[in-house]
UniProtKB/TrEMBL annotation:
Listed name of the protein: Orotidine 5'-phosphate decarboxylase
EC number: 4.1.1.23
Organism: Allostreptomyces psammosilenae
Keywords: Decarboxylase, Lyase, Pyrimidine biosynthesis
An annotated Gene Ontology molecular function: orotidine-5'-phosphate decarboxylase activity
Pfam families named in the record: OMPdecase
InterPro entries, alphabetized: Aldolase_TIM, OMPdecase_AS, OMPdecase_type-2, OMPdeCOase_dom, RibuloseP-bd_barrel
Region (Disordered): 1-20
Amino acid sequence: MPHHPTADAAPAPRPAPEPFGARLHRSVEARGRLCVGIDPHASLLTAWGLDDDVAGLERFTRTVVEALADRVAVLKPQSAFFERFGSRGVAVLERAVADARAAGALVLMDAKRGDIGSTMAAYADAYLSPDSPLFSDAVTVSPYLGFGSLRPAVDAARAAGCGLFALALTSNPEGASVQRAVGADGLPVAAAVLRRLAEENAGARPLGSFGAVVGATLADPGVDLEINGPLLAPGVGAQGATPADLPRVFGPAVRSVLPSVSRDVLRHGPGVGPLREAAARLVDEVRAALGTDG
Ligand SMILES: O=C(O)c1cc(=O)[nH]c(=O)n1[C@@H]1O[C@H](COP(=O)(O)O)[C@@H](O)[C@H]1O
């Protein structure tokens, strides 16, 4: 019997997924430099004329996805607002993630997970395993059990073409007592986190996949922000920062900034048009603040 060389050959390896950093770079070029948070606060549901229940949550979320997922670079659902309704709330979140990704937005799951490595592996399964119902393009993580504890998430993200955003200098004033404390290596804790992210991003082009969270509200980060990865900048809008603050806060690293806004866009609902206009205005303001290529 003639031997068929292909008959017993191993299946062709799956092509490596495109890294998150490259996908984010492309999305920002096409859609502008903005992440909109989906934060269904009870007060926003009320302001939209919705009840603070699962039906209200679902209507709110679907409206935001319909309005923005086909035009904003990144949508960031904040898991807490869905979890507070239990499994039915999480089901709304699952659907939002799938719908937003199908419409072309990158989904950054704001879950701020952080735990010992073996548990971190389970969180990585939840958000970064392509078969998971909550599979997202990226997830926020807390490095405050030690950056090394995030290793399973780093590895899972790399394998799946996903990203992580590790909390470095958060937008709330309480963060400084932990994040600016000087560690045994003589570095502020946040600086050590940023350095570890830079190591993960070494050599990546055009942008690494391992980002940091650095609040736009900071007076002066005072640490090296050049990590060759994205810098998520929450705090614009409701927390008082404006796009015009970004160059001062981030210095030369501003070219890697992804400003994140939740309430200051969401308060324009429930109309799809006003939500779109609010997001488009912010994209323009960010572009103006950063210069023409911003
Ligand atoms: O990781 C985050 O997104 C985050 C980090 C941080 O330092 N500060 C911060 O406000 N956030 C989140 O960003 C969003 C800010 O919402 P607004 O203040 O309404 O724009 C919330 O979902 C916060 O949980």
